[in-house]
Every structure is written in C-alpha cells, then in structure tokens.
From TrEMBL:
<protein>
    <submittedName>
        <fullName>Uncharacterized protein</fullName>
    </submittedName>
</protein>
<feature type="compositionally biased region" description="Polar residues">
    <location>
        <begin position="122"/>
        <end position="133"/>
    </location>
</feature>
<dbReference type="Pfam" id="PF04111">
    <property type="entry name" value="APG6"/>
</dbReference>
<dbReference type="GO" id="GO:0034272">
    <property type="term" value="C:phosphatidylinositol 3-kinase complex, class III, type II"/>
</dbReference>
<feature type="region of interest" description="Disordered">
    <location>
        <begin position="116"/>
        <end position="141"/>
    </location>
</feature>
<dbReference type="InterPro" id="IPR041691">
    <property type="entry name" value="Atg6/beclin_CC"/>
</dbReference>
<dbReference type="InterPro" id="IPR038274">
    <property type="entry name" value="Atg6/Beclin_C_sf"/>
</dbReference>
<dbReference type="GO" id="GO:0043548">
    <property type="term" value="F:phosphatidylinositol 3-kinase binding"/>
</dbReference>
<dbReference type="GO" id="GO:0000423">
    <property type="term" value="P:mitophagy"/>
</dbReference>
<dbReference type="GO" id="GO:0000045">
    <property type="term" value="P:autophagosome assembly"/>
</dbReference>
<dbReference type="InterPro" id="IPR040455">
    <property type="entry name" value="Atg6_BARA"/>
</dbReference>
<feature type="domain" description="Atg6/beclin coiled-coil">
    <location>
        <begin position="167"/>
        <end position="313"/>
    </location>
</feature>
<dbReference type="GO" id="GO:0000407">
    <property type="term" value="C:phagophore assembly site"/>
</dbReference>
<dbReference type="GO" id="GO:0030674">
    <property type="term" value="F:protein-macromolecule adaptor activity"/>
</dbReference>
<dbReference type="GO" id="GO:0045324">
    <property type="term" value="P:late endosome to vacuole transport"/>
</dbReference>
<keyword id="KW-0175">Coiled coil</keyword>
<comment type="similarity">
    <text>Belongs to the beclin family.</text>
</comment>
Amino acid sequence: MSQDPSTFQCQKCDSPLKLDESLKNLNNSQLKLLLKERKTQILQKANSEILDDLKPEEYIPEDRLKTFEEISELNQEPMIRRNYFESEDDEDEDDEGFDDSGFTSGSNSYLVLNESDEFEDTNNVKSESQSINGDDDEERGFKMSNRIKTLSKIFSILSNNQDINHPLSEDCANLLIENYKLKFDQSEKEKESYLLFLRKLKEKDSSLSLYDDDNINPDLLNQNLDKKLTESIEEFQKLTILEKENLQELKNLEATKIELEAQLADYEQQLDQLRNNRLNDILKLKNKLQLELNDKSKKLEQSKAAYDVQLDHIDKLRNLNIYHRIFDISCDSEDKFATINGFRLGYKIIWPEINAALGQIVLLLMFIIKRLNLNLKYYKLVPSGSQSQIIKINSQEGSGKTKTILNLYSSDEFSLGKLFNFNKLDVAMIALLDIVSIIETKLLYLDQEIELPYKILKDTIGGKSIRVTSNSDWTASCKFLLTNLNWILIFVSGHTSGEE
C-alpha cells in the first residue's frame, strides 16, 4: 500500500488508484461501524471462550456475587453496559478521529439518559458546534489523515480475510472476477460429473435390488451371490470342456504336421533322384546355351548402340568448325564491345582483359599466316598470352636490319607519352593493323572477289582510328578489326588445307 497519505496504489499492478466517491463520502459513523464490527466479533469470540473456562465463584467475591443475584431478581435495566475484557486504551486508539461526542463506548455498551440530561447534552452540543466551526480549517487536515488511516485499516481487514491484497484497480478487479468465474464454472462441471457418477451408482444399486428401505436386504444379497456363483461354476465347466476340445484339436494338428513333414522328406528324396538323371543334365545344357545366347545378344545390342553413337559423333565433327571453337569472336550482351574467347576489347575496359584479348588476336594471326603459307617480311609475331609482342624489322642501307620490339599490352601507369597524346601501344596497334592489311592482300591474290566488311587505310579501319588514345573511336575500330578477322578465319577454313 502506498505511503503517500493522499493516494493509494493497486497491490497487484502498482498503478495509482482514484478512490470511489462512495469511499470518500463515508461519514464517521459508517467508518466506525466497519471497524467496530470486526473488533466486536473478535472480542466476543475471545470473551465467550474465556467465560466458558471460568466460573463466577472463582473470581467474584461472595458479597458482590450475592448483591448481583439480588439485583438480577429485581430485573432492572442497567445504566451502562461495558464489555469486561475490553480495555479503554484499545477503544481510544480505535475511535481516534471518529469520536465527536467526547466519550467512547464499546460495542456492547449503551447509556440511558433522563430528560434533564438530554436537555443539558443538547446545550452542550450547540456550544461545541460553535467552537468547532471556528476551528474547521485546523482540524480538516487531521480528519483527512484519520480518514485515510481508517481506509487503510479497512483495506488491511479485507486483505487478511482473503488471499488477495487490497486495494485493487478496476482492471485487476475485473480480471480477478473473471478468474473466479472460471473457477466457479470448473467447480460446477466437477459437481455435475460427481452427480452423474453418483446417479449411475444409485441406478446400479437399484438394479441389483440389494437395498430395502435404505438398508441392505440380506436375502436379496445372498440370492444374488448364489446366482452369480452358479453362473461362474457353469462358465468354468464350459471353459474346461472348451480347453479339452482345443487340446485334442492341437494334438490332431501336430499329427498332421508330422505326416506332412514325412511327405516333404519323401518328395525331396525323389527330387534328388531326378537331378541325378540324364534329363537333368540336358536341362542344364539347355539353360547354359540359353544364357550364352542372351549374353551374346546383349553384346550385339551394345555394339550397335556404340556404332550409332560414333556415327552421330562423326556427323557432329563434320559439321563442327574447329576454328570457331578455338577462336570465338562475337559481341557482348549489349552489343557494345567485340569479344574474342570471352575477352572484351575497347575503351573503359580493364587493361588485364584488353591485354588478354590482344594476345588472342596475335595467336589468331599466327594461325592464319601458317594456313596461308604467308611470309611476313617486315614483322614477326610473338604470341605470349597477355604480354604478346610484335617485332618490327627495319632495313636501312649501310646499317643492315634493325629490330624494334612493340609491346602489344599496356597498364594504367602514367607516362609522358600519354600526357602528349602518344602511347607505345598505338604504334603496336598500327603495326597489327598493317599485318591484317598484308593478309587481306594475300586473300585477294587467292580470290579476287573477296572483300572485307571494313576497309583498312593506314591507321584507320572503317573510318575509325585504331589508336588507343582515340578513346570511344578505339572501341569501334577494335570491333571492326575483330569482324574482319572473323571473315578472314571463315575464308581460310573453307579454302585452304592444313598442309604447309
């Protein structure tokens, strides 16, 4: 319960509570009644237990007891009744904040007043009310604290009488009510089950007729037991006869089993004799020959299937262009870059991929030159994968022949040549284009009607510069170059032989 004197908290969810107006508007008499009823019940129970154990002669003097008996015979009403075992201190403590008349009385006490006393009390009440009206502001806080203290006692009494601590919020109270409803419904179901079971037991007892006017009928009980005993004996005799019949049937089945086993042994002996006869040998030979025939038939079928597979393979090889398998020239999915064996060639392609594509082009040119038996006078191709080279042979008068190595690969390293729009790879690409032009001249010698798709003129092909520094034009020129090489490859594969 909250320690704040003006608020209370739910004892289950600890949420602050707003008291109902009915609790706030309780008058002193109602609050006192709630507390006094429980106290009275406890004291009455204690008083009754103590008085039952004591006798008046043990604790009351004889003269007072005699006087009490004389007064009791007169049957006069007492002026004041008080509980003998109720202490004045307890009354003062419990009635704090609720006593407006100036005195405290127990739950079993009352006061008889005459008319004069009533008149005097009326005057006293009027005078006291005037004084109280002047001190309302001072006593208001005191009364409020007493009221909250009394409500705390009421909640404590409720918590002691139940398993649930009070106060509770509205939601917690609703959940508690729902829980009690579920328990009540479950108890009702159990009650119905027990009543149904009890009803069945009573019906069974009534069917047996063992009870006569709520008492056991011994005659009916003995009669029922004799009847059941007779039925049990008859059933036992029937089961005994059935057991004998089953045993006899089991013996017959065992005898039949022995006869069948003897017949089986005889048949097995006859079978052994048949196996020893010549007919058995002939059957074995027949089976052996049949197995061999089946085996050879399977092998023949396998040979025919293998022959058909080889024929299909030969047809595929005849239709296969080995040159296109070795050098696969095509375009990428976006038809932007030309590719050879999967390596793209063009602007904004990473240099390792470009170097690999140029190496494949050098290898393709070597193959075409050998197929055409072409002798390059001023160039020599050196295919070395991603680091292929072209050796250019220069013949000068007086100094003889000089060789210049042109690297057909590059990297992203910075050089002064790039700064001045010049790159060594440009020279190698121009030499590569010159070699393709020499091959085109050889093809025109073999077939004057052949014409490549894109015309080569110095350092351009199809009107696009072959120089790397031409950026986007270089992509188009590389695409044109691979297209011309693809045409040359098709012509070489169809019009030349492999003999050098």
